[in-house]
Amino acid sequence: MTFLRSTAILLALASPSFAADAELTVFDWAGFEEPVIWQSYVDKYGQPPTYAFYGDDDEAYQKLASGFKADTAHPCSQMVSKYRDAGLIEPWDTTRIPAFDTLAPQFLDSEIFKDDSGVWYIPTDWGATAIAYNKETVPEEDVATLNVFTNPAYQGRISLPDSADDVWALAYLATGTTDWTDVTDEQFQKAAAWLREAHQNVAAYWADPSEQAQLMASGAVDVAWSWNDGVVLLENDGFPVGFQRAPKEGSSTFFCGFVNLKNGPGSEDKLYDFINAWLAPSAAKGLLDTIGYGHTSTVAMDTIKDEPAVKEGLSPIDAPILAQTPNDPGQRERQLAEFEKIKAGF
Questions:
Q1: Closest residue by Cα to residue 92 from 218, 274, 224
Q2: Which residues constitute the signal peptide according to the record (predicted)?
Q3: Which of 177, 204, 289, 325 is deepest in the core (most CB within 10 A)?
Q4: Cβ neighbours of residue 261 under 8 Å, at least 6 residues apart?
């Protein structure tokens, strides 16, 4: 039985046994507070950690850099260098993480994550960003290309994420760039021009997957650039959503994980218990059912490899993929600033 977010909230309000644990504060994206993902932590302590939420990676970083205190945060891979450069995090003690050796090697293949001074990042989850669409109103041929987002027929009928990383991944793919680790000025300008064109069709920039799902379920938009979780929410409500991950220009992938924040106010023992709960093989099914994401542990992922949601939303595709891996911090800041201009109509 899936322990859904609404159930968790009701139990937290109604029963002292589900009161938040004041000895561990997790700063996270909304949706990951589902106990089914880290059930062994609740089994051990009888309550979930205290959760604080953010809407995007840049918001989380700014809040922590301004002095907000938590024990761990859940950035996606391209943000880890900022946390390191700012001195906000410290290495993990992997001798306290038995499942560390089960992590798929590609998720740690960067000196930003692991170097001679230690392991700075525990990747835990990964997913795709692709085209979500209403199968009853949008022909399949229209979503065979990313130019559905600039198609005049969908003016005022599309939604993009209020996330610079995801919209630039889209724009680069749409203009023929599949690797954002070495972007030329010409590629940047071409992608920016495409984004400005797409902006003319945008009804709303969604802040989180539930907002994106609501926009589609209400009929306000027909097409969205979506993570897996927005699709899961719509499918759970019986909405006729399609998830096109193989348009001719391709789609994007990302992965996220946890950092050990310096001078966290809570219990270090409980922090490691939380991470170990996340990396337990049983976490993969809860993660897939509630968020639609894959697990970074090969042992955990093996437990769900035959699930329909894996085949639909996470399996290899015959199309280009832009992997949202760490890129140049200066280029990322440039993209962030340009995205703000585009949203403002400039």
A1: 274
A2: 1-19
A3: 177
A4: 27, 64, 69, 70, 71, 72, 73, 88, 89, 90
Dist CA 178 CA 182 (whole Å): 10
Report the distance separating Cα 321 and Cα 222, nearest Å.
Answer: 23
Tens digit of each residue's pLDDT (9 = 90 or more) over 227-244: 999 999 999 999 999 999
Cα–Cα–Cα angle for 98, 324, 224, nearest 5°? 115
Rounded average pLDDT over 97-103: 98
Which residues, in sequence order, are bridge partners of residue 52? 27
Q: Which stretches within 175-259 are classed as H helix?
A: 185-199, 209-217, 228-236
Which residue type sits at 174?
A: A
pLDDT digits 0-9 by tens, 55-99: 899 999 999 999 999 999 999 999 999 999 999 999 999 999 999
89-90 vs 21-29, strand pairing mode: unpaired
Tokens of 161: 């994420």
Least confident of 9-13, 53-57, 74-78, 244-248: 9-13
| Predicted confidence band of residue 18 (pLDDT cuts 50, 70, 90) | very low
DSSP SS3 for 74: coil
pLDDT, tens digit, for every residue of 265-287? 999 999 999 999 999 999 999 99
Dihedral, 242, 245, 248, 249 alpha carbons, nearest 10: 130
Cross-strand pairs, 128: 253
Question: CA 295 to CA 279: how far, in whole Å?
Answer: 8
The one-letter amino acid at 110 = S
Binning the chain into helix, strand and coil, the percentages to the nearest 5 are 45, 20, 35
Q: How far apart are CA 245 and CA 253, in angstroms?
A: 10
